[in-house]
Design goal:
TIM Barrel, Rossmann fold, 3-stranded parallel sheet, binds alpha-D-glucopyranose
Length: about 600
């Protein structure tokens, strides 16, 4: 049950009925064109403020990495202010209904330069701290509103079962109970912070066969409910205002056309009273004729359609389907009532225009306070998998060699959905924060960085260094481009890049790190063979088969995708804080067995049990 239908105190009932009165009064004034406009969500690169007014557009989004101007908060505020002003210019043809702008602020408002970038969800799952997740939600909401934005497409409530899935890092855990324990907290943090949340992707996105992104989840209904639907219950009970449909299928039926899952289960049985959003071009594959595809999605219960470029076709196609009686007017009215209900209930109508809001002045954006929360999250996310000879904690006075492709690379630390959709490498695009090396340098004066153009000659042997910290891992990726599977294009046309042979290539064919990045094990072995104890830190979006790297390391730490505050790693490597992280999903070994079970994680020597 959720805020619109759950049992609630009288005062809330009064509020809800006031909301309903306003919604119905507005709906009664709207033309069919104005209603269909509210259901339409183009991408910012394909719609102007003037077109928002002319076509009565209800929402605009930024796809990953689609950033205005110099990608500073002020540029975002200016862009949103223009869209908002256009949407509120009432005249004979247009009703003043505020635009709802949506972004993927899934680990902080990480599209925007200078944002605090929190660890991706898999690291938060390792931290096992729902209160921390709520605090991250509040901090994220402040940084989203600093950009004049009112809606984020988060949280992802996927229950990732197969690390071959390119979106594993967006999942908190393979355990639906842990995901459910976070779901209500992140929704509360975001929405009490003044930003509309979006529980996604409905439903079963993390359970596809072989971990193929946008693939097919083949399970019976009992399993679907127990694993994939369960985490949505606390999210809806906390009042999540929007839900995004998955681009995957359930037993061969596309979720975007699944009337039973959307109208009967989510809206009927679970009482969801907000609105349901399609995913990126999720309508296109439903039928050869775009109008018919639109009708299939809307009749299945989708209320707003994310149609980045073909929004004019969508409007015309849906209108024709309504006029033919294929889509009942009652379904249109229900969809628009839901959209208006979210806009009224979230306070959007009472908000000043973005440029005149207190929160839009950038205060709090990338603040020390937020970065401290992010650094705490990094500390708590780290999982210690091996610590032979108690090489950890390192002594702050030790001579430490630091090397590896992710040692001094804030972009790699952040992973996908950071500044660019597919993420970035290097440090220049991540303004603020610390690399793992910068964190180590700050506490260990005897540390030197080696490789990647940094100083320090080739190390000769153990007489020179007490230990080495080798930071290895994956390059950033997002969605299907992170899949591990046989090569072949990711489903063309439904991702942000144009379809084309080879343009959308999966990350690799194996989870074995030594095959994906052979240079990593060479570096670790090279140092170990010189008698230098190696602490290997793995920066990755998922567990990987790392038997060879672990065997050559004295200590091995899973750091996931820690985000902008890499100094949190040094906090634990040098013993200022203990390891508390536990695996959020099983860790694979060679031969497909589970090397370490979910919940596994060591602590530093001498820690109380
Ligand atoms: C993407 C993702 C979804 C994201 C949306 C907007 O394809 O599936 O999670 O929110 O498009 O960027």
């Amino acid at each position: 049950m959720n805020r619109f239908t759950s049992a609630r105190p009288a005062s809330a009932t009064v509020v809800a009925s006031n909301v309903e009165r306003r919604v119905l009064a507005l709906l009664a004034r709207m033309t069919l064109d104005q209603k269909i406009g509210q259901m339409t969500q183009p991408e910012r690169l394909h719609v102007t403020p003037a077109q928002v007014k002319r076509h009565h557009i209800g929402s605009v989004l930024s796809g990953g990495g689609s950033c205005p101007g110099d990608n500073r908060p002020a540029d975002w505020v200016a862009m949103n202010d223009a869209y908002w002003a256009a949407s509120m210019e009432e005249d004979a043809d247009h009703l003043a209904i505020p635009i709802l702008y949506g972004v993927d602020a899934i680990h902080g408002n990480a599209n925007v330069r200078g944002a605090t970038v929190f660890p991706h969800n898999i690291g938060l799952g390792a931290a096992r701290d729902p209160g921390l997740v709520e605090r991250i939600g509040r901090a994220t909401a402040r940084e989203v509103r600093a950009a004049g934005v009112d809606w984020t497409f988060a949280p992802t409530l996927a229950v990732a079962g197969d690390p071959r899935w390119g979106r594993t890092y967006e999942s908190y855990s393979e355990d639906p109970r842990l995901v459910g324990g976070y779901a209500g907290r992140i929704v509360r943090g975001l929405q009490e912070g003044g930003v509309v949340a979006c529980a996604k992707h409905w439903v079963g996105d993390g359970g596809t066969r072989g971990g193929v992104d946008q693939g097919d989840t083949v399970v019976d209904e009992a399993e679907l409910r127990r694993v994939h639907i369960a985490p949505y219950v606390p999210a809806l009970e906390t009042g999540a205002l929007t839900v995004m449909v998955s681009l995957s299928s359930w037993n061969g039926e596309q979720c975007h056309a699944h009337r039973y899952l959307i109208r009967d289960v989510l809206k009927g049985e679970m009482g969801f009273g907000g609105f349901v959003l399609s995913d990126w071009n999720g309508v296109d594959p439903l039928a050869d004729d775009f109008g018919e595809a639109a009708a299939a999605a809307v009749n299945a219960g989708i209320d707003m359609v994310m149609v980045p470029e073909r929004w004019r076709e969508f409007i015309a196609g849906l209108r024709a389907q309504v006029e033919r009686g294929v889509v009942p007017v009652g379904r249109i009215d229900d969809a628009v009532a839901r959209i208006l209900r979210v806009k009224v209930a979230s306070g959007l109508f009472e908000r000043a225009r973005p440029a005149e809001r207190r929160g839009s002045n950038g205060v709090g954006f990338g603040s020390h306070e937020h970065r401290a929360v992010a650094r705490e999250a990094v500390r708590k996310s780290l999982v210690l998998l091996r610590n032979e000879g108690a090489v950890l904690p390192l002594d702050k006075g030790a001579r430490v060699l630091v090397t590896g492709p992710a040692a001094h690379d804030r972009g790699r630390q952040c992973g996908g959905f950071t500044v660019e959709w597919q993420g970035v490498t290097g440090n220049e695009a991540i303004v603020g924060g610390t690399s793992i090396w910068e964190g180590i340098r700050a506490v260990a004066p005897g540390a030197v960085l080696w490789g990647g153009g940094a100083r320090a000659a080739e190390p000769s042997d153990a007489r020179e260094f007490d230990a080495a910290v080798v930071v290895i891992g994956e390059r950033p990726y997002a969605e299907g481009m992170g899949d591990i599977r046989e090569l072949g294009p990711v489903r063309p046309g439904t991702n942000h890049l144009p379809a084309g042979p080879g343009v959308l290539r999966p990350y690799g064919r194996t989870l074995e790190l030594a095959s994906l990045h052979p240079e990593a094990v060479r570096t670790v072995r090279g140092l170990a063979e010189r008698g230098i104890p190696v602490v290997t830190v793995l920066v990755s979006g998922r567990p990987l088969v790392a038997d060879a790297e672990m065997a050559a390391s004295s200590a091995f730490v899973a750091a996931w995708l820690p985000g902008s505050e890499g100094a949190g790693v040094a906090d634990v490597l040098f013993g200022d804080h203990d390891f508390v992280g536990r695996l959020p999903m099983g860790w694979p070994g060679g031969g497909d067995d589970v090397l370490f079970p979910r919940g596994y994680g060591l602590q530093l020597p001498g820690s109380e049990v």
